[in-house]
Amino acid sequence: MTWHVLGAGSLGSLWATRLARAGLPVRLILRNPQRLAAYRQAGGLTLIEAGQARQYAVAAELPQASTPIHRLLLACKAYDAQDAVAGIAGRLAPGAELLLLQNGLGSQDEVAQALPGQRCLLVSSTEGAFRPAEFQVVFAGNGQNWLGDPSDPRPPTWLDELQRAGIPHQWTPDILTRLWRKLALNCAINPLTVLHDCRNGGLAEHPAEVATLCAELGELLQRCGQPAAADNLHEEVQRVIHATAANYSSMHQDVALGRRTEISYLLGYACAAAQRHQLHLPHLLQLQQRLLGHLQARGLPVN
Ligand code: NAP
User: What count of other Cβ atoms lies within 10 Å of the Cβ of residue 67?
Assistant: First the structure.
């Protein structure tokens, strides 16, 4: 069974190269003929791991290709997910499976609603990767890929292929808890690093602000039926701030590089959920307003 990987960005390239390295059939789906031509010019995807670079000539095609898709790794940003699946929906075979790699929450529902009848597996990844150049990826941080399906606790039959490819993974029936927890950590840390223009460790100088946000996020998680995701949230946020003190958060990096953020699927999703539950979380709302103002002032999209 071929693995179709939509998006040759950081995580898409990291998955595609490891699957190809294990001899598994992989095909990249690239956005348009220009991107496909650039990819063919590059000669393949290069994985840089522990300072060693190796190129893999992974086959590539356009969304409009005619072959059916049985298994798709959707490796674009959350704000591109809905349009990206619309472009390949006609190619999905009956019973096709999709792995949704997007950070935050909201995009997974958008995709699932557009594809009734297809199985959407949600992935929460703590691996780290970045692109030093087009069609090159640096494996920057070991981590885990949690996979699950909120509507069906049975694992898929192909997890052994991830094993063969050396892609760390763990099947979990509680994938929503994982995604909510990651979203809450992101909301407590990333926006503040942008507003204070600091590394994660810089938040140690703003303990009261962090504590207030954690309390409100904990309330939100409880109200959204995610008590396990609220467990010791403040302690974990403090631990992450300490353990990743030297790092710039992904949102800080996006803003510094003038790139669109995934705010609508992180803090925006949290604030919308609070509103839906008529939960008054003044600090979280104020954080959203400050962040939106910050993005607007820099000419960056606010969605
Ligand atoms: P990325 O490097 O920006 O890659 C996204 C890729 O998707 C780009 O190459 C983009 O193509 C492609 N794309 C978008 N729409 C497409 C379409 N319609 N057809 C074909 N390709 C399309 O993003 P990323 O860092 O891999 O992140 C992907 C998701 O994983 C995000 O939600 C992110 O938050 C999450 N995540 C990332 C990491 C990490 O370390 N990078 C870790 C954990 C989670 P173009 O190049 O043509 O624009």
Answer: 11
What pLDDT is attached to residue 89?
Answer: 97
CA of 237 to the centre of ligand 1 (A): 25
CA nearest ligand 1 atom 3, residue: 9
DSSP secondary structure letter of residue 84? H
Beta bridge partner(s), residue 98: 72, 120
Give the pLDDT band of residue 117 (cuts 50, 70, 90): confident
Report which ligand 1 atom has the smallest distance to the Cα of 250: 34
Residue type, 62: L
- For a ligand 1 pocket test, name from 4, 5, 6, 11 the mutation site with the most ligand atoms within 8 angstroms of its C-beta: 11
Between the CA of 80 and the centroid of ligand 1 the distance, in Å, is 8
Closest CA to 77 of 153, 158, 146, 131: 131
Handedness of CA 129, 13, 127, 230 (dihedral sign): positive
Q: pLDDT tens, 40-81? A: 999 999 999 999 999 999 999 999 999 999 999 999 999 999
DSSP 213-239: HHHHHHHHHHHTT-HHHHTTHHHHHHH
pTM (whole model) above 0.90:
yes
What pLDDT, in 10s, does the model give residues 164-200?
999 999 999 999 999 999 999 999 999 999 999 999 9
Q: What are phi and psi of 128, to 5 degrees?
A: -125, 135
Q: Which atom of ligand 1 is nearest to the CA of 78?
A: 32
